[in-house]
Prior knowledge:
The protein is α/β, with parallel strands linked by helices. It is 42% helix and 13% strand. The chain has 2 domains: 13-251, Aspartate Aminotransferase, domain 2; 254-346, Aspartate Aminotransferase, domain 1, CATH 3.90.1150. The strands form 2 sheets. The protein has a 7-stranded mixed β-sheet, sandwiched between helices. The chain has a 3-stranded antiparallel β-sheet with strand order 8-10-9, covered by helices on one side. The protein is globular, with a radius of gyration of 21 Å. GO terms for molecular function: lyase activity. Homotetramer. This is Low specificity L-threonine aldolase.
Amino acid sequence: MLFTSDNWSAVHPRVMEALVKENRGPAPAGGADATSLRLKQKWKEVFGPQAEGFLVTSGTAANGLALSAVTPPWGGIFAHHASHIHLDECAGPEFFTGGAKIIPVEGEAGKITPQTLNEAYAFYGQDILNRVPPAVLSLTQGTESGTYYRADEVRALTDEAKRLGLKVHMDGSRLANVLAATGQTPLEATTALGVDILALGGTKTGGMMADAIIALTEESAGSLHRRIKRAGHQFAKQRYLAVQWLALLEGDLWCKTAAHANRMAVRLADGLRARLIDLPWPCEINEVFPLLPDDLSETLLKRGAQFYPWVLPNDPYAGKMKRFVTSFETQPAEVDRLLALIDDTRLGRA
């Protein structure tokens, strides 16, 4: 009963097969191989002719390097107060940008709104030497609350960001889950909505170490080649990263694996609601956030369920919130076992 993180899943068999097939003979180093060049063209097909992709091996590197391309070291980055770049990257974005400051912005269910963005900008947007000048709006799609921004919500935020003179970064660690939920294409969900640069996740949907930065404008791509080299992310045998993405993109495999994860999360969320367990946020991708009594949580953990506590700053849920994440490997029987264990615990049979 594994519900800790989609990062815990194995490599998808089709990705592993592609890696094995790639592992035949020598090839030029540093991204000059045929597989990397093929992926370079594929990014343009997927995100638009101006898109340029850069491969890295973690979401933290993708976010930090992407942000470094669109903000000066003294710039401010508006991000949701529960965003990964704010809470869970050990100052990686600050490191890669050379000191830019993340400014937390409020918003329900993981989402910033034009109103909360403007409230933050009203303070930081003043031309005062002692304060960081705002440079970037960062959006997490899907959010750390298991929700996602609708297309009109993204467009409203990018329009407002442009009006305020901000670049737009998207943390797309679970973008595939959003695409699976909405039916949007990658281009429709990013480039067409005014996003400047994307940190794209593939590891959660079946890759081994498949994360990327997609510069969606010529300006945002400008300095990334040297930034990536300086950060130690120009890989000698880049073809082994590139082939993972080619396998994930072929036949929309990455979205199909995400769709399965989404369905398993909905199955779990529906089962929890049927048992009158409170879920403060809707389940829209592959994350579920129930409020569980301490005794129930302890019994579930003792009986082999694996999940994380989810405590936010100024925690409004008194430590009761837990996070359950499903993956492409999660099976209906696994979800049903967990729900049956909840029933047994409540009846004193666990």
